[in-house]
């Protein structure tokens, strides 16, 4: 699969109705889409697999560009770079692609919202753009942020690479503040809507990130 590439910078906003239940598809446009360019593979109901690209996405729906042509209401399962498994039901089919209403728990939608915020603003966050340091999808997102005085804050990993991370956290330490994320030392390089971006003091090994992967 190819590398994830972002569209134009934009702050992601979510407009979740209160009556959306667990794993119930939200009404069309219940969430605001952002432009993305995320490659992956998807499987249609007949178990045929196709390369695909998500071109617009929200926690509620996704627009795919794909050679495969499903039917309306057909179930689709996709595996997208850095976002993982997405499943749902086709609600629109066009000339160049189709839209899928995502079937997910509220928790999964919250995670997608944070990931899409990161994707939409990646270039604005200022994390190193070294192509050798591919973005990783954390399996364990819950961790702690430590300040130099020993104060700790619960936080959640939004995005991770060998050279930096983005976290969802309640505080906004000043830019340049030395911090420790788990066992990794670094400094705050940007603020964004849900939290902060951290650049590690040195490039990490995959072994050092094993606790999150």
TrEMBL record:
An example molecular function term from Gene Ontology annotations: cyclic-di-GMP binding
SUPFAM superfamilies: PilZ domain-like (SSF141371)
Domain PilZ as annotated: residue spans: 130-212
Pfam families xrefs: PilZ
Residues covered by region (Disordered): 1-26
Composition skew (Polar residues), residue ranges: 12-22
Organism from which the protein derives: Pseudorhizobium banfieldiae
Protein name, UniProt field: PilZ domain-containing protein
Cross-referenced InterPro entries: PilZ_domain (IPR009875)
């Amino acid at each position: 699969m190819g590398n994830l590439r972002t569209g134009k910078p934009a702050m992601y906003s979510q407009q979740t109705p209160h009556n959306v239940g667990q794993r119930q598809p939200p009404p069309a446009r219940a969430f605001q889409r952002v432009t993305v360019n995320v490659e992956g593979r998807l499987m249609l109901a007949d178990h045929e697999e196709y390369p695909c690209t998500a071109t617009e996405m929200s926690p509620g729906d996704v627009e795919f560009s794909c050679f495969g042509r499903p039917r309306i209401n057909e179930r689709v399962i996709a595996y997208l770079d850095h976002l993982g498994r997405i499943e749902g039901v086709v609600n629109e089919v066009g000339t160049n692609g189709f839209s899928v209403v995502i079937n997910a728990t509220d928790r999964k939608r919250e995670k997608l919202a944070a990931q899409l915020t990161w994707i939409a603003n990646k270039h604005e966050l200022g994390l190193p753009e070294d192509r050798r340091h591919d973005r990783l999808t954390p399996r364990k997102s819950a961790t702690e942020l430590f300040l130099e005085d020993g104060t700790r804050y619960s936080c959640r990993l939004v995005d991770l690479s060998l050279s930096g991370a983005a976290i969802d956290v309640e505080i906004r330490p000043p830019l340049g503040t030395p911090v420790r994320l788990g066992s990794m030392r670094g400094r705050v390089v940007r603020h964004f809507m849900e939290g902060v971006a951290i650049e590690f003091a040195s490039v990490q090994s995959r072994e050092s990130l094993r606790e999150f992967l």
